[in-house]
Amino acid sequence: MNALSEIMKKTKRLLFFGGAGVSTASGIPDFRSSDGLQGEDGLTPEMILSQSFFYLQPERFFRFYRQKMLHPEARPNAVHRYLYELEKRGKLGGIVTQNIDGLHKQAGSIRVYELHGNVHENYCMDCNASFPMEKILNSEGIPRCTCGGVIKPNVVLYGEPLDKYVSIGAKREIANADTLIVAGTSLAVEPAASFIEGFRGKNLVVINKEKTPADERASLVIHDDVEAVFRNLDLP
User: In the chain, what are the domain boundaries?
Assistant: First the structure.
């Protein structure tokens, strides 16, 4: 913690790269821990939340999506609040997140690159009308627009490409940072995990309960709960 505090004090431009472990303290399960998100009927969450499953079995997709992926009660935790304070102080270049919960924006952060989209954004596949999360949450079966079109969550499903412009912005911020904090992610999901290869700054910090592929090249590794670390970290 002392080493992390020293890095934070000297940092001029920080970039935060976060995964599911950032939001578990807000009551949102991750994908890969033993008590994380579980599939059903022999199918893994990755199978159900895939592009092909969405088109082949949309009713089952939306049933799982409503039950497992939507958490309207979730609120920002110490990590989200800390990063918002850093952004206000001009020390945070941006947040690149693999999470779709929208909690960084809910905490007030503006420079957020949501690689996998946001559950609060939904659109009609026919007329492109926009809808809030509650539209899907309160619907039954396949949610539809008044025009009759299917309402699709603006999240990147397995098998779909990342948004081009979000990816470009995220890679630019990573390349421009002097400190990169990688937190709450196993770095197992591609292509997002490979984004950190573009970091050429001074300090690479990894905060995760388990080992990650980035540990060996990191300046500092903390194997601990992300929220616990930030809850006890002083603002620089």
Answer: 1-28+75-116+161-236, 31-70+120-155
**What's the predicted TM-score (pTM) here?**
0.92
Tell me if residue 4 falls in helix, strand or coil.
helix
Work out whether the CA dihedral 121, 125, 42, 138 comes out positive or negative.
positive
Look up residue 174 and give its amino acid.
Answer: I
Q: Which two tokens stand for residue 170?
A: 């995220």
The structure tokens listed for 143 are 């949610």
Q: What is the pLDDT of residues 20-56, one digit of tens each?
A: 999 999 999 875 544 446 667 778 889 999 999 999 9
Active site positions, annotated: 116
Contacts 24+ apart (CB under 8 A), 28-31: 28/71, 28/74, 28/99, 28/101, 29/68, 30/184
Assess if CATH 3.40.50.1110 describes domain 31-70+120-155.
no
Fold of 1-28+75-116+161-236: Rossmann fold (3.40.50)
